[in-house]
Amino acid sequence: MVHDAAHDAAHEPPAPAPPPCVIDEEQFIQVYEKNIGVLIAVAIRKFQVPADDAEALAHEVFLSYLKRKDDIRDLHKWLLGAICNASRYYWRQHGRNIEQLDTELAAERPDPASKDILEIMASRIAAGEALAGLSPRYQHILRLRYFEGYSINEIAEHLGVTAKYTQKLVTKCLRRAEEVFDASEPRKKT
Questions:
Q1: What percent of the chain stands above pLDDT 70?
Q2: Of 26-35, 67-76, 93-102, which range is least confident?
Q3: Computed from CA positions of residues 177, 179, 183, 188, in that sequence, does the dihedral angle turn out positive or negative?
Q4: With helix as H, strand as E and coil as C, how does the chain read?
Q5: What tens digit of pLDDT does each residue of 24-47 get?
Q6: 117-183 in CATH: which number?
Q7: Which CATH architecture describes the domain 25-108?
Q8: 21 in Cβ contact with 67 (< 8 Å)
Q9: For FRET with 161, which of 16, 48, 68, 128 sits at 20 to 30 Å CA-CA?
Q10: Which pLDDT score, from 0 to 100, does residue 186 have?
Q11: How far apart are CA 128 and CA 141, in angstroms?
Q12: What angle do CA 30, 41, 100 make, to 5 degrees?
């Protein structure tokens, strides 16, 4: 009997298919490192989950991600939703209604984004009012410098003038804005 290799290859069972959720290890490490801190912070700050438990919840979220990665459209939104759901479930399991969070504990750990918010908002409103009182050219120069982050050299190039003249012009714009601000309604003295 003649042994035909082509005949044997045609009758061999197919190679097993890879699992449906194969993920590149490097890709997972990047996703993990980019998002682990955010997930833990959400669990701790928003839901007041203890730090050790928050880390465990974040790891559970990543395990769930590995199982469902092929079905996820927007990874960032999915991860945030997953940690919120995991945190809510955590409190349901621990007999605490998340709607009644401890306000004293929340005050001890204020959200960094809202720190000094009243002073910042007052300053922004005042800056907006002062800016509105300037000529369009002065507004444009100050917006380039302080809102869009242009350097003096970049503004000079944009205006077609020297850097030295631009520095004087920015200073002049600031002085005029200060005059407009000082001339606005009287502020309360504390």
A1: 73
A2: 93-102
A3: positive
A4: CCCCHHHHHHCCCCCCCCCCCCCCHHHHHHHHHHHHHHHHHHHHHHCCCCHHHHHHHHHHHHHHHHHHHHHCCCHHHHHHHHHHHHHHHHHHHCCCCHHHCCHHHHHHCCCHHHCCHHHHHHHHHHHHHHHHCCCHHHHHHHHHHHHCCCCHHHHHHHHCCCHHHHHHHHHHHHHHHHHHHHHCCCCCCC
A5: 788 888 888 999 999 999 999 888
A6: 1.10.10.10
A7: Orthogonal Bundle (1.10)
A8: yes
A9: 128
A10: 58
A11: 14
A12: 145
Q: Write out the two tokens for 134.
A: 């300037």
Which residue is associated with the tokens 């720190």?
115
User: In angstroms, rounded to a whole number, what is the distance separating the alpha carbons of residues 41 and 55?
Assistant: 9
Total residues found in the chain within this entry:
190
pTM of the prediction? 0.41
Q: How many CB atoms within 10 Å of residue 90?
A: 20
Domain boundaries, the chain: 25-108, 117-183
- With the C-alpha atoms ordered 72, 77, 80, 85, is the resulting torsion angle positive or negative? negative
List the one residue out of 42, 128, 135 whose CA is nearest residue 84: 42
**How far is Cα 112 from Cα 117, in angstroms, rounded to an integer?**
10
Residue with tokens 């009182």: 133
